[in-house]
Amino acid sequence: MLVDLIDVRQALEHEEVVPCFQPLVELKTGRLAGFEVLARWRHPDFGLILPENFISLAEQNGLIGSLSQQIMTKAFMSAPVLPEPLVLAINFSPLQLCYLSLPLQIREASKDSGFPLQRLMVEITESALVNNLEVARKIAFELKEMGCRLALDDLEPDIRACATFRRCRSAS
Asked: Quick one: which of 8, 23, 133, 158 is 20 to 30 A from 14 by CA?
């Protein structure tokens, strides 16, 4: 589906971008561990629109923060129905992992919804680490201090990425 910037802006204004929850299963036990939060656009005429049709437009036009905030807030608000110890895993755009304000946004959404950050897994892509390692380290450290879990997402088959992630996780 082809969408344009006006469509994406309207979707955000009308809060049509919604979280969908994909089960996360422990490989060893087969038990449910939580849910990955996925952005979907509930278009009034076309139904659910997949993120590859609108995320890059949001990133390129400075709307990704607003989009992520809506998804995170809605996911946190629906989380009280999840029994402990299930987690929510959320991907953030590599662009957002360059903004030192990201931990504050996450903390505020958690506070507003009552969702405990100990049950949040922030998924970080390898490209986010490579783009600006020092800022990513600061953000990763602050997220860990807040109680969030960190996970590496979309890992390329490269040992270098694991070493980079370890440096972020042990940032002090």
From this structure: 23
Q: One-letter amino acid identity for 138?
A: K
Question: 136-161: per-residue pLDDT in tens?
Answer: 889 999 999 999 999 987 655 554 55
In degrees rounded to 5, what are phi and psi of residue 20?
A: -115, 150
| pTM for the whole structure | 0.84
Q: Which two tokens stand for residue 63?
A: 């709307």
pLDDT of residue 93: 86
Report pLDDT for 55: 93
Q: Residue 3 and residue 17: Cα distance in Å, rounded?
A: 14
pLDDT value at position 172? 47
Question: What is the per-residue pLDDT for 163?
Answer: 55
Residues near 145 by beta carbon (within 8 Å), at least 6 away in sequence: none
Residue 113 CB: number of other CB atoms within 10 A? 17
DSSP assignment of the chain equals ----HHHHHHHHHTT-EEEEEEEEE-TTT--EEEEEEEEEEEETTTEEE-GGGTHHHHHHTT-HHHHHHHHHHHHHHHGGGSPTT-EEEEE--TTGGG-TTHHHHHHHHHHHHT--GGGEEEEEEHHHHHH-HHHHHHHHHHHHHHT-EEEEES--S-HHHHHHHHHHHT--
Structure tokens at 50: 């997949």
